[in-house]
């Protein structure tokens, strides 16, 4: 394991500790922070990052939250804030956010060999072998290193279990900059106090419906769940809640998120920036979605037995004729080959396309997914077909490698136009600072 001394020169004492620790490192206001990393003029100003087609708010700076702006607010309702408070509205730049997430995790990898991304803006970091009295110095070192090298503000919550680390992180993110570290020891008075103040619905993995069921039994806080009868939880709830109860007691039993089984279906779709009656626009949208879906499929090491292609007009625009349709293609053998999927998608689109309709959305759904290593192939498969499949697989591997290194959609199959009606509206999108040579920031000496 790489130690913190290797990274920072800190004199952190290592050895056989009394328990294993896990940290949850979470970036504050991730999308906004990514924008601010390259545009310091946004620091201190209310900033909103908008959804596809700039329709509504999906991320907010603290300054915007203070103005009472909630998630999902339509963009047109923010115009008065732009005029009065100089609020800034940014189109979402997912290529930038994905690359910044990769850089963030690269830094965490210097502190531990076990870094497990949980979402685009947070990761679990295993910290075995650290003494309790050195964890604070280590946590603050993680915060300062990420801030220095990636220019992202993070909070570091450390505890013996993932569930407690989640709660510790919520506290850490509210602390002053440079001190955003919080440690939870399961049997301390500090932990008891925090759990008593934590509503049951704020515990990791407990949703609204489960929260209501627990409250009906008088379990309203994290502490009450921790102290509840194990027999009661076992009889009335799932094994997942039993694990949560044990985790609140400091007993690690939540499985790694990387051990969760792959999805059984995969959908890629998007509303168009502008409705289109041109078949070329819809066909290009379908090609883009197939490329994206196939790459995700290969990333989770799966193959698909079937694929659905669907198109539809805008159901809210009743002034124009309506049409929606979908068709399923069943592959001869399970596949993750982009070229094979594109051929099938083109055939399906020709069958469901209707001239004279303005289509607003298109997408693909890959179904009946199985592990690629255990997929059943035909016994009648000819040697030439097997050779072609192996060659195509090598091509897919090269495409995925290039897209991983150079940025999403660097290399795709099928023609790609710079301007098309189906492209999403992004009137205020920041440059691709880290994934496009043309957008690299320029520094001029004066």
Automatic annotation (TrEMBL):
Keyword DNA damage recorded: yes
Keyword annotations of the record: DNA damage, DNA repair, SOS mutagenesis, SOS response
Domain UmuC: 22-207
Keyword Plastid: no
Source taxon at top rank: Bacteria
Span of the signal peptide: none
Transmembrane regions: none
CDD domains: PolY_Pol_V_umuC (cd01700)
Pfam families: DUF4113 (PF13438), IMS (PF00817), IMS_C (PF11799), IMS_HHH (PF11798)
Entry-linked SUPFAM superfamilies: DNA/RNA polymerases, Lesion bypass DNA polymerase (Y-family), little finger domain
Family: Belongs to the DNA polymerase type-Y family.
Record-given protein name: SOS mutagenesis and repair UmuC protein
Protein source organism: Marinospirillum insulare
Lineage start: Bacteria, Pseudomonadati, Pseudomonadota, Gammaproteobacteria, Oceanospirillales
């Amino acid at each position: 394991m790489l130690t913190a001394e290797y990274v920072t020169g800190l004199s952190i004492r290592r050895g056989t500790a009394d328990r294993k620790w896990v940290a949850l490192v979470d970036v504050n206001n991730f999308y906004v922070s990514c924008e601010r990393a390259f545009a310091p003029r946004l620091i201190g100003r209310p900033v909103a990052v908008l959804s596809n087609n700039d329709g509504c708010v999906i991320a907010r700076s603290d300054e915007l939250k203070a103005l009472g702006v909630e998630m999902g607010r339509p963009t047109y309702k923010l115009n008065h804030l732009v005029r009065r408070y100089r609020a800034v509205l940014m189109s979402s730049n997912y290529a930038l956010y994905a690359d910044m997430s990769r850089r963030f995790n690269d830094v965490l990898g210097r502190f531990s060999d076990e870094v497990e991304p949980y979402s685009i803006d947070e990761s679990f970091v295993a910290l075995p072998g650290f003494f309790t009295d050195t964890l604070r110095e280590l946590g603050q070192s993680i915060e300062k290193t990420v801030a220095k090298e990636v220019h992202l503000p993070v909070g570091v919550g450390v505890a013996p279990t993932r569930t407690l680390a989640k709660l510790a992180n919520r506290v850490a993110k509210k602390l002053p900059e440079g001190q955003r570290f919080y440690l939870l020891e399961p049997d301390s008075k500090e932990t008891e106090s925090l759990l008593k103040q934590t509503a049951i619905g704020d515990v990791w993995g407990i949703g609204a419906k489960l929260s209501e069921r627990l409250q009906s039994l008088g379990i309203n806080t994290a502490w009450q769940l921790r102290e509840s009868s194990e027999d009661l939880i076992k009889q009335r709830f799932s094994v997942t809640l039993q694990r949560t109860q044990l985790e609140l007691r400091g007993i690690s039993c939540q499985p790694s998120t990387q051990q969760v089984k792959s999805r059984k279906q995969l959908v890629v779709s998007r509303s168009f920036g502008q409705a289109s009656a041109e078949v070329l626009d819809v066909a290009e949208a379908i090609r883009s979605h197939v490329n994206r879906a196939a790459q995700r499929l290969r990333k989770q090491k799966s193959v698909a037995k079937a694929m659905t292609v669907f198109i539809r007009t805008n159901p809210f625009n009743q002034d124009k004729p309506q049409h929606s349709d979908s068709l399923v293609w069943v592959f001869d053998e399970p596949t993750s080959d982009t070229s094979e999927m594109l051929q099938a998608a083109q055939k399906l689109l020709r069958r469901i396309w209707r001239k004279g309709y303005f289509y607003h959305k298109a997408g693909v759904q890959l179904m009946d997914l199985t592990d690629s290593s255990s997929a059943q192939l035909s016994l009648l498969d000819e040697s030439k077909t097997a050779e072609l499949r192996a060659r195509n697989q090598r091509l897919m591997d090269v495409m995925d490698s290039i897209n991983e290194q150079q940025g999403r959609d660097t290399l795709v199959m099928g023609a790609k136009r710079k301007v098309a009606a189906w492209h999403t509206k992004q009137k205020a999108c920041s440059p691709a600072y880290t994934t496009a040579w043309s957008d690299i920031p320029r520094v001029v000496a004066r």
